[in-house]
Amino acid sequence: MVYSEMVAEFTDSVPCGAPGGNDVGETAGALRQASDEGHGIMSANRVLLLEDSLIIAMEAEDILRLSGVDGIDIVGSLEQARAAIAAESYDFALLDVNLGEGMSFGFARHLIDVGIPFGFVSGYSDIRDFPPDLQHIPLLVKPFDEKAMREFLQRLLGGLTRPDAESTL
Predict the structure, then answer these.
(1) Residues 72, 145: one domain?
(2) Cα(121)–Cα(63) distance, rounded to whole angstroms?
(3) pLDDT bracket for residue 43 (50, 70, 90)
(4) At 118, is the pLDDT very low, low, confident or very high (cuts 50, 70, 90)?
(5) Helix or strand or coil: residue 154?
């Protein structure tokens, strides 16, 4: 559970006892619903995140959830990633380039073959060091923030973003 969801769950359970029947939980729920309407940009339901750094994976997960993605599967190795796509279907994937055990370029080519859109997430900012056949793939440079991730997702998945989503969040 994401930290913001834990806070919301707690807030929803704390009644204020206001005379009009309005309590903190109802108010918080209404505010959260209103803010979600402007923040969720994705209509994707399931994402594969291949990242060997747990801290970076958790940060990306939080941002993806804020962007409206419901299902996020985090894997830390190429073997786990191959098993995941064999078992599940994904709307898109985010791939760390350097996994310690090797580079994700071969797996990226497999995603192209099976028709899963993806983008790279890397500390390497120069795509000219990538194989020529993968230099056109969108790249999110680490470290990234929420704004950079949202812009990256809009570049990567223009067709999967909600039409009513704000362009700059």
Answers:
(1) yes
(2) 14
(3) low
(4) very high
(5) helix
Record the pTM. 0.70
Q: Please state at what angle helix 24-39 crosses helix 3-12, rounded to 10 degrees.
A: 150
Q: What is the CATH number of the domain that holds 140?
A: 3.40.50.2300
For the beta carbon of residue 50, count every other beta carbon within 10 angstroms.
Answer: 29
CB 47 within 8 A of CB 64: yes
Per DSSP bridges, beta strands 118-122 and 71-75 are unpaired
Instruction: Provide DSSP, 44-73.
Output: --EEEEE-S-HHHHHHHHHHHHHTT--EEE
Of 93, 69, 70, 66, nearest to 147 by C-alpha is 66
Looking at this protein, which amino acid is placed at residue 63?
Answer: I
Asked if residue 29 and residue 56 are part of one domain, the reply reads no
